[in-house]
Structures are given as structure tokens and as C-alpha cells.
Amino acid sequence: MNVTVIGIAGGTGSGKSSLVQKLCSCELCDSITTLAHDHYYHNPEDISPVVRESENWDHPDAIDNSLFIKHLDELTQGRGIERPEYCFKEHRRKSSTVLVAPKPILIVEGILLFAIPEICNRLRWRIFVEAPPDERVLRRLLRDTTERGRSVESVVDQYRKTAQPMHDLWIEPSRNHAHFILPNINSTSIDNGCEILRGFLTEQLSQASSP
């Protein structure tokens, strides 16, 4: 199987997951499989003391990149994987895993994908989703309080202490590795971006099936 790997990165709350969900609900869904970097967070005891004590979950060392790369390579080579599941309320992996089957298009998504050379170099096409900082923090606030059981105070405190500094240190500079920059200001812009990407992915599938 010829697998095209698309990387979608961007700051927290930029709209990466919304974009992936829309792509997976279009007519190409049967040809797309996804892999989210977020599922590969280490358990707290497996993180370096410096990262663990600062509760810096936006640092590259907070994620099991070795396992992520191994699974990325397996899917690229046409083999299925058992992807870990991460519980953001408990801050640790679940005992269960999820079977992910290979498909012609593999979309990987995460804030730090382009900041880690071993991952970035494996991505055939790299798309950076960009949204204004105030919009991103509001989206993160809504997500973490409604989906992850966080208080407003804890979300704001984490954003100030680690999320924004790590964005400036790792994520924003990684924007330079993107092939495409996708502005995401509102739902209309993400719909327009999805339409453009659908055309692009259709072209990739056509090229892959050509003799």
C-alpha cells in the first residue's frame, strides 16, 4: 500500500482536531486514517523529573515520541497498530488500546509534530493551522472545562506557566517547516480550508492509484 502522510500542527486551540474531523466526515473518509500525538503522553512516573514537577505537558519530553514514531512507521508500511488511549482527567494512559488500520491517507495531528525532527521528516505534507492567540486560549478554556474536568483557574494558570511559553519556544518556530499555512479565525475559514484540503487529498489519491 502506498501511504501518503499528512501532518497537521498548530498551537493549542488552533482548530487542528476540528479540521481532521471535517476531513474524516467527507467522501474520502474510507481512504483516511488518523493518528493523534495527544494519545502518546507518558504516564507521570515515566516523565523526566524536571518536566513532571513543572507539570509541563506542552514540552516534547512529555510525549512518548519513540512509540509514536514506531507506530507512524508501521502504518506507513501498511501494517496496523495498537494505539494507546490517554485519559486527560486522570493524566495517564488507559489499560485499553485502539486498533488503527492502515489506509492510503494517514493524517497525524498534534501541537509539536513539526518541532520534533524525527517526526517532521516523516511527513510528506505539513499543514500548520493558525489562529489568533486570544481565540486559541478561549477555545482551550472551553475544551478543558467541558471535556477534561478542569477548573477555569487551573486552565488559565497552566496556559500562563507552560502552554504559552512552550508555544513561543517550540510551536511557533516549527511553523517554518510547514508547506501550507491555514488561517483559522472562525467556522467559515475552517470550512474553506477543509474544502481546499479535500481537493488536495483527492489529487493525492489519484496520483497514488496511477500506474
Question: What is the CATH architecture assignment?
Answer: 3-Layer(aba) Sandwich
What global shape is seen?
globular
Mean residue pLDDT = 89
The stretches of 5 or more residues where confidence is low (pLDDT under 50) are none
Number of helices: 7
- In the CATH hierarchy, the third-tier topology is known as Rossmann fold
The topology string of helices and strands comes to EHEHHEEEHEHHEH
Strand order of the largest sheet: 2-5-1-6-7
How many angstroms separate the termini?
13 Å
Largest pleated sheet: 5 strands, parallel
Number of domains: 1
Integer-rounded radius of gyration = 17 Å
Briefly note the structural class of the backbone: alpha/beta
CATH homologous superfamily title = P-loop containing nucleotide triphosphate hydrolases
Strand content: 15-25%
Instruction: Look at the structure and give the CATH class.
Output: Alpha Beta
Total beta strands? 7
**Helix proportion range:** 40-55%
Structural features, described:
With 211 residues, this protein is an alpha/beta fold. The protein has a single domain, classed as Rossmann fold (3-Layer(aba) Sandwich). 44% of the residues lie in helices and 20% in strands. It is built from seven helices and seven strands; from the N terminus they run E-H-E-H-H-E-E-E-H-E-H-H-E-H. It has helices spanning 16-24, 49-54, 65-76, 117-120, 133-147, 152-174, 187-209; strands spanning 4-10, 32-36, 81-87, 92-100, 105-109, 125-130, 180-183. The strands form two sheets. Strands 2-5-1-6-7 form a five-stranded parallel beta sheet, sandwiched between helices. Strands 3-4 form a two-stranded antiparallel sheet. The two termini are 13 Å apart.
